[in-house]
Amino acid sequence: MMSSRACKPFSSSLLAASKLLLKSSSRAPPLQISALVGSMVPKIQGPKNSSGFPRSYMSATLASLAKEEEVPSKAIDTLRAVEDQHGGVIVNIEEPMDSSVFASLLEDSILQWREKGKKGVWIKLSREHSNLVDSAVKAGFRFHHAEPDYLMLVNWIPNTPDTLPANASHRVAVGAFVMNANREVLVVQESNGRFSGQGIWKLPTGGVDEGEDICTAAVREVKEETGIDTQFVEVIAFKERHKSFFRKSELFFVCMLQPHSFKIQRQVSEIEAAQWMAIEDYMAQPFVRENELFDFLTKIGLSKFDGKYNGFSTVLSSTSSRKKSYFYFNNKDAGHMLA
């Protein structure tokens, strides 16, 4: 057992070291800290690195302080992160964490990342970790985008112009021009949306799903809404409009499809009615006649059906990452290049 005489100088050394470490105006030199640590650890406890003092979370103990001065990168606990391809880091919180602990870790992490010259810091928080959102916002992070299962926040930490990419600016939709040998076009009346209840016959349309190709989406939408099986032929036109869906722009691709079945089975949940309509009757609708875009689009579809117009066909090609993707091109003028 340590005598009271041994405890007294040890307590005095501990007090002196604590005062030195808590000074905010300057940092004590490593040699001075090492001397203090050495003087306050009793001989019977062995070397300083085996003094028995436990390491506390997010702080250095006096017993290991001298060692940590030699390896500064080990002195600060930081959030686990992986580097991205643009000089930044991505933090994916996977375990439950107290918001105050997260705030402290985040502050120390930003200091270290800034010293290493990192730029953008991305934090991905699942719904289970929504308690950390407030701490991240207070640390300077902003919302970048959200998905059903997570929120992505971002912060540009250097004192240089922010070059982080904005959230996706466009959504993609398709329309299908499907005509049979009797020159009848496949049309629907929607149960919901801006055209519902107006008696307007229109082309099948819909959004492109995440990871879905334009040509595949057009075939899927026609099948879902009308029950008709089709084959993609070409993209015959596309248009862009802005601030159409939660302030996002929209790219709308019109596809020519060839029907392979003809019996209609409408989608009850979204489609009020569906039919094969004579192209003359479709074009005679006031909605089509008075709408320059729809009138022009119908004329393009007819011209393609009669072999007087060429759109964009697809070819499956490889990218630099060896992934396969569809490439759209004018087959009439560039088809010989595939030979």
From TrEMBL:
Family annotation (CDD domains): NUDIX_ASFGF2_Nudt6
Domain Nudix hydrolase: residue ranges: 169-301
UniProt keyword list: Hydrolase, Metal-binding
One GO MF term: ADP-ribose diphosphatase activity
Superkingdom per UniProt: Eukaryota
Keyword Hydrolase (UniProt): yes
Family the entry assigns: Belongs to the Nudix hydrolase family.
PANTHER family registered for this protein in UniProt: NUDIX FAMILY HYDROLASE (PTHR13994:SF33), NUDIX HYDROLASE RELATED (PTHR13994)
Protein's recorded name: Nudix hydrolase domain-containing protein
Organism: Glycine max
Gene label: LOC106795478
